[in-house]
Amino acid sequence: MKSSIKESPLFWPAYLEGATLFVLDETLIPSKFHYVKVRNTKEAVSVIRQMKTRAFGQFLVVLNTFLLEIERAKTFAPKKFLAQIHKTATALNNSRPTFPFSEVTGIVVGWANEALAKGEDAPLYVKKNIFGYLMGIRERRLGRVRQLASILQNDDSILTHCNVSGELAMAAALCKQEGKKIRVFATETRPYLQGGRLTVWELKRLGVDVTLIADNAVGSLMADGLVNKVVVGSDRSCANGDFANKIGTYQIAVLAREFGIPLYVLTQPSNRIPTGADIPIEIRDANELLKFGNRRIVPGKVKGFYPGFDVVCHELITEPIAINVR
Questions:
Q1: pLDDT score for 308
Q2: Rounded CA gap, 263 and 232, in Å?
Q3: 10 Å Cβ neighbour count for 14?
Q4: Which residue of the set 25, 156, 235, 242 is catalytic?
Q5: Are residues 160 and 281 part of one domain?
Q6: How far apart are CA 37 and CA 319, in angstroms?
Q7: What's the confidence (pLDDT) of residue 185?
Q8: 235 noted as active-site residue
Q9: What distance, in Å, lies between the first and last C-alpha atoms of the chain?
C-alpha cells in the first residue's frame, strides 16, 4: 500500500480566504501559532521584508497577492487592468533582491498580456492560470518529498541547514512510515534561529528523531562520523547549477566535501542567472544580528554585518533534487 504523506504546517504556509490572505507568522513559532492578514500589495511586501514567512511562503505570498489585486481590478478597463498587474509585479520584485520573484511575476504578467491579445476576460483568465499553477506546484513539491524519501536510507543521519519548508520533515516522516530509521541534526541557523524554532519544531511534530546543534558544531559532527548525508534548501539557482541558500550553507558544503559526505539540495532550476557570482546577495539590517527580541545583545558601539545568503558552487553538490516552477 502506498504511504500517505503527513503534511507539515510549513509545507503550505499561506492560504487565501475571500479578500484576505492568511500568512503563517514563522517568526512567532514555536511560542505562538498565528496567521498574519494580508489584504493588499503594500501589506504583502511588508510581510516579505519582515521575513514573516520564508522562501516558499514568500513565493505563495507573491502569487496570492496577484489574486487579491485581480479581485479589486476585475472591473477595470483592459489597459488599466494590465497596468495594475505591472504595478503589483514591480512592487513584489523590489521587495527582496536575492529572491527571483521576477521569474514568477513575469509569468503572471505574460498571462495578462496573453489574455488581452486573445480578447479573453483578463481577470478570469489570469486567475484560472494562477490557481492551476499553484496546484501544479503543490503536486510537484509532494513529488520532491517522495524523491527525497527514496534517497534517504535506513539508519541515515542527516544534517540540515535551512531546508525547503516542510519537505525534509515530510520526507523523514514518510521514511518512518516505510520502516526506515532516520535521524536529523538541525543547525540552529543564526541569527533568526530558524533551525531551532522551525526545523526542530516541524520535525518533532511529525515524529522524527531530531537533535539541535550550534552552527559552529558542524565540522566536529562530521569529523566524529555522526552525519552521513546533508540536505539543504535553495533560495536561488543558476544556469550552471550554483545556488544560494541561507548564510552558512557554503561552509557546510565545503566541510561535506572534505569529509566525503554527499550533499543534496532541494532546488528550482533556472537559467536567468549564469553563475553564483551573478546572484545579488541581500545584506540585511545589522540590528537583526545585534538584537534579539528587539533587545540589543551586544554591548557598546559594535557594527554588525549580516549577508542573508551565501553561494555554493555546483561542484560541491552531490545531487540537485529539483522541481520546475513553470
A1: 93
A2: 8
A3: 25
A4: 235
A5: yes
A6: 38
A7: 98
A8: yes
A9: 31
